[in-house]
Amino acid sequence: MHIHVLSLFPDMFSGVFGASILKKAQEKGAVKLEVSDIRAFSGNKHNQVDDYPYGGGAGMVLKPEPMFSAVEAITAGKKPRIILMCPQGERFTQKKAEELAQESELVFLCGHYEGYDERIRQHLVTDEISIGDFVLTGGELGAMTVIDSVVRLLPGVLGQADSHIQDSFSTGLLEHPHYTRPAEFRGMQVPEVLLSGNHAKIEQWREEQSLKRTFERRPDLLEHYPLTDKQKLYLEKIKKQQ
C-alpha cells in the first residue's frame, strides 16, 4: 500500500512513522508512507495557502489551489481514495479501517485554521473521516490514528497473521481480559480456567468475558450484534446479577 499525507506540519509525522508497527511495516515493504508540505504547492512566492473567508468571520480558510495542485501532482492521473480529516466527517470505526486496508493507495488531507474551501470537499475528496466528536488543532493527529489502524491490518505487518482478528471491535465485541506470568502477583490471581489447559473451557471463558465486558462498557454494540441463543442466555444471567 502507498499512503501519502498532505500537511502544513509534515515534521509531526516523523516520530510516529519512524517507530513501532508503522516503522516495521515500511521495513517489510507492506506500506510506503510519504508526507508532503502543502505549502510546496502554494504557487506563490510567499507560500500562502490560506485566506480570509468570503462573507467575513473569524479564522482563515485553506485555499483550493494548493490542495488540488498537490493531489494532482501526487496521483498523476490515478484515482486513489482522497481522505479529508474533518470533524464533520463519518465517524471512524474498525469496519472503515478494514475497508481502507483493501485499497492500494490512500491520500490524506490534513488542514488547520478555520477549515477548507468547500470546493475541496465537493470536488476533490472521496471520504471525510472524523475520529470523534471533538475538535483538534489540525487533521494530523487524526490522520496518524487512521493510518496506524489501517496499516496494522495489512498482510504480514503483525507478527501473527490473525493477531488483529480478536482485537476489540474486530469481532463486533470488546476483547476479553488478558493475563500473563506470574500466576500470582501480590495476592492477585490469574483466573484458574486459564491455567487449566482445557482449551474448550478457555474459549468459553473468553467469549463470556467478552460479552460481559461489552455489556458493561459498550452496551450499544450489542444492539445490532448477531447473538446466538447461548450468548443471549449468558447475557440474561449477567443482567440478573446486576
TrEMBL record:
Keywords: Cytoplasm, Methyltransferase, S-adenosyl-L-methionine, Transferase, tRNA processing. GO terms for cellular component: cytosol. Belongs to the RNA methyltransferase TrmD family. CDD domains: TrmD-like. Specifically methylates guanosine-37 in various tRNAs. It is an enzyme of class 2 (transferase). It comes from Lysinibacillus mangiferihumi. GO terms for biological process: tRNA N1-guanine methylation. This is tRNA (guanine-N(1)-)-methyltransferase.
